[in-house]
Amino acid sequence: MTIDKYNFAGKKAIVRVDFNVPLDENGKITDDTRIRGALPTLKKILADGGSLIIMSHMGKPKGKVNPKFSLGQIKDAVAAALGADVKFAPDCAKAADDAAALKPGEVLLLENLRFYPEEEGKPVGIDKEDPAYEEAKKAMKASQKEFAKTLASYADCYVNDAFGTAHRKHASTAVIADYFDADNKMLGYLMEKEVTAVNNILSDIKRPFTAIMGGSKVSTKIGIIENLMDKVDNLILCGGMTYTFAKAQGGHIGNSIVEDDKLDLALSIIEKAKQKGVNLVLGTDCVAADDFKNEANTQVVPANAIPDGWEGLDAGPETRKAFANAIKDAKTILWNGPAGVFEFDNFTAGSRAIADAIVEATEKGAFSLVGGGDSVACVNKFGLADKVSYVSTGGGALLEAIEGKILPGIAAIKG
Ligand code: AMP
Known about the structure:
The protein is built from 14 helices and 17 strands. The chain is of the alpha/beta class.
């Protein structure tokens, strides 16, 4: 079923959203992008005359009740965003009566799903090496099904609009779908948009295709880097991984972040790019700092000749130019991960140069997809989020989808 075709009138819909929003120390939301992202789906259900049961996780409470991660903290913000009253069920697995009492147009927000270990379905308090682990895992899978069945029993239909967790086979993201027939389960609008954006990158590639991978480490991005190698014309690898590449090629990197066990991997990526005719763009100069802080002293040095006591925290001017050149004429662009420690205002230039070039290419007709928490934070920080084609809400889910993996949250609905 698709959400557009479904008439929610008189139905109770249970919707998995990603309301894992960042909170400050007073429990105030610092970025409500994820709440706003789910609104088209939630509003369609209410406008049709359906009632709404909203479920989400927040943070990592690891299967235990923890007020720090209570969704009760965001109830009023959800109500304000929806323009409707929101009731709160303080125990997501004991909400049957609250759900049954819902009238058309009413909204019930369930407490954090991850207060129950069944949500993630991983046995707690037992080591993977323990001989009893396999038994515990089996038992947990059985209680995960029961938990999912309980959630399913609240509603007539199920909508998954949580792209951020679509790569997880959790009770609320995948297992629950087994308790609804194909006509009563569907992806939400946000999820549909995400899937279309990924398809644009995977199947409808206009060339040249430039991918920009940044962030702190090569190890967490290797799957996608290898996958992209078969697809892209230009591959920019930036951020902290610059120095693993520089060291692998015999460079001196001072105190820069490095993965010493990934030097061979870095060399094999360089070799593979050559074989496949991919233009691999690595940083040649950097802004080095004498401390890991915004106010540190800085100097521009070659990325392979960083003095001892200094560390590369941002791309240098020559590198920024090279990045922009590989981006500005591209027709398809994917950006994941910053080019420097962008959280410090003095080390945003590399990420800024990338963002500006992406905006320029987008204005000339490129399709640009920005995804992953930190690159999204970058475009937001620069006020450029509405100048790129699509900003994905998914970090791990986006990367896995682009790696070509089937996401359990999508498979559970689409089959
Ligand atoms: P990741 O979680 O791997 O996507 O990495 C994101 C983080 O990488 C951000 O918090 C950046 O501050 C950090 N990062 C980017 N460039 C560097 C660098 N040169 N040195 C240390 N950390 C960096």
